[in-house]
Design goal:
By secondary structure, the chain is mainly beta. The protein has strands spanning 5-10, 13-24, 31-41, 44-49, 56-58.
């Protein structure tokens, strides 16, 4: 999963980035992805998303 290119939503705007880390929540084991954005949004360089809940689109 690390290194995959993804589109994520940051403040309602689509942003392209790269998955730099994959972890799971301790209680429920939900997958979390840390995504480093290609272009920072309002000073945000990295976001953490839950692909089961958040808008995440993987590039082929």
């Amino acid at each position: 999963m690390t290194g995959r290119r993804v589109w994520v939503s940051v403040e309602g705007e689509p942003r392209l980035g790269t998955v730099v880390e994959r972890t799971y929540t301790p209680k429920k084991g939900s997958e979390l992805l840390a995504v480093e954005l290609d272009e920072p949004a309002d000073g945000t360089e990295k976001v953490v998303v839950n692909p089961a809940v958040d808008d995440v689109l993987f590039e082929s």
